[in-house]
């Protein structure tokens, strides 16, 4: 089938919830994708941080193939080998002691919100339920997750929304301190805001936040759905800031391309859940957790994460050089391979121009070009991406 035929079939039968581009990808390998017409693309978005090991990483494919021949799923009424071992790997490499598995980032955040409330009510009383989240944050599209999300556009048309959320500007300690009241039980925050525009707060903010959390005896929930699993050059981004969260959510890169979510917590907090309090039929099934284990194994190999930092610095250096040539680039920022160019204008024209030339990037928060290449990217691929981007800026006449 051609791209056009895929587009027509999709338009007829698939519910219209995405502003899709007229491309159907049919094959991927490493940082490369091919569409249905055979055109090759360099992927600097990784399915929005999903394909962090590149497309069809051999170890992930092998793990899935092997598991598919043995057992797909029975149910969470029984113990699951891959789930146990993936939970162990997450615990051994984070603050957490216990892990709950689900199928997406939104679902992981739903679990985190439920656990925080349950813990707070049990420990501090019925009146403790309010969760402070950040303006421009993104936590998913299910009802509680979109209510936690600090962007009105995701909430419009879906009222009545769950109550008990309060929003403050990201990076503003004074506003955070002022928002706390007798109902507050938790702060929920992305270590780096992804959909909000790759927004980074400085170390002093995080030190202040940790102080506020301690002073007011609050829970700290970090949403690592986009920033986690090696993306920033550490396995989890909260580690850059010396934070001690109580709850963390994961998804996207955790499965290397298959749908998996996880919500991890300290023993103290996790013990607020009793059997029956929360569940997911497919959560942590053998197939996806075998993929997750393969991802974890690769990311924990010696030198993997330091290479992410090295490639991230190289990408930022090259973008900074480009910024000197194109005045429409106001700022280059990022951590590891979560990188952005702040423009002085809308970025969609640049994204389209890159796509035409075979480079996949994305534009978020209107004027922010976002780069989330596979963590396995090399200098050669970065150079190629920069050349295409440079041409796109010149073609647009952007300075
Ligand atoms: N949290 C963050 C930080 C995200 O970036 C996203 C997805 N972009 C989500 C949650 C929601 O994840 P999912 O689409 O898997 O529900």
Automatic annotation (TrEMBL):
Q: Which domain of life is it from?
A: Bacteria
Q: Does the record bear Cytoplasm in its keywords?
A: yes
Could you say which residues bind N(2)-acetyl-L-ornithine here? Answer: 141, 280
The residues the record assigns to binding pyridoxal 5'-phosphate are: 105-106, 138, 223-226, 281
Question: For this protein, what does the record note about how its cofactor is bound?
Answer: Binds 1 pyridoxal phosphate per subunit.
User: Molecular function (GO) terms listed?
Assistant: identical protein binding; N2-acetyl-L-ornithine:2-oxoglutarate 5-aminotransferase activity; pyridoxal phosphate binding
What EC designation does it have? Answer: 2.6.1.11
Q: Main location per UniProt?
A: cytoplasm
Instruction: Kindly list the cofactors needed.
Output: pyridoxal 5'-phosphate
Q: Which GO terms describe its cellular component?
A: cytoplasm
What PANTHER family does UniProt report for this protein, alphabetically? ACETYLORNITHINE AMINOTRANSFERASE, MITOCHONDRIAL, AMINOTRANSFERASE CLASS III
Assembly mode: Homodimer.
What is the name of this protein? Answer: Acetylornithine aminotransferase
Q: Which gene encodes it?
A: argD
């Amino acid at each position: 089938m051609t791209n056009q035929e895929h587009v027509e079939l999709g338009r007829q039968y698939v519910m219209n919830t995405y502003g899709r581009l007229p491309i159907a990808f049919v094959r991927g390998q490493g940082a490369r994708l091919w569409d249905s017409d055979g055109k090759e693309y360099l992927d600097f978005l990784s399915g929005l941080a999903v394909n962090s090991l590149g497309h069809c990483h051999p170890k992930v494919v092998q793990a899935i193939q092997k598991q598919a021949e043995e057992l797909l799923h029975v149910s969470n009424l029984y113990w699951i080998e891959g789930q146990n071992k993936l939970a162990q790997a997450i615990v051994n490499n984070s603050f957490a002691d216990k892990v709950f598995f689900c199928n997406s980032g939104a679902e992981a955040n739903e679990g985190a919100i439920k656990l925080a409330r349950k813990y707070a009510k049990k420990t501090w009383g019925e009146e403790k339920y309010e969760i402070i989240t950040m303006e421009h944050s993104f936590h998913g599209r299910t009802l509680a997750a979109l209510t936690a999300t600090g962007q009105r556009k995701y909430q419009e048309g879906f009222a009545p929304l769950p109550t008990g959320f309060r929003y403050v500007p990201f990076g503003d300690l004074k506003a955070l301190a002022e928002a706390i009241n007798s109902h507050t039980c938790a702060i929920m925050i992305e270590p780096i805001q992804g959909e909000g525009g790759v927004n980074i707060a400085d170390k002093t903010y995080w030190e202040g936040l940790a102080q506020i959390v301690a002073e007011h005896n609050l829970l700290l929930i970090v949403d690592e759905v986009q920033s986690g699993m090696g993306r920033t050059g550490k396995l989890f981004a909260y580690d850059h800031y010396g934070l001690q969260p109580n709850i963390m959510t994961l998804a996207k890169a955790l499965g290397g391309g298959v749908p998996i979510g996880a919500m991890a917590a300290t023993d103290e907090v996790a013990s607020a859940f009793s059997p029956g309090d929360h569940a997911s039929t497919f959560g942590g099934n053998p197939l996806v957790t075998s993929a997750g284990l393969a991802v974890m194994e690769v990311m924990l190999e010696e030198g993997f994460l330091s290479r992410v930092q090295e490639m991230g610095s190289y990408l930022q250096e090259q973008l900074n050089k480009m910024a000197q040539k194109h005045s429409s680039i106001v700022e280059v920022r990022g951590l590891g391979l979560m990188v952005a160019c702040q423009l002085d204008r809308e970025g969609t024209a640049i994204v389209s121009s890159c796509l035409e030339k075979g480079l996949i990037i994305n534009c978020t928060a209107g004027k922010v070009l976002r780069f989330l290449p596979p963590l396995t990217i090399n200098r050669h691929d970065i150079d190629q991406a920069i050349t295409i981007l440079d041409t796109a800026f010149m073609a647009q006449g952007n300075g």
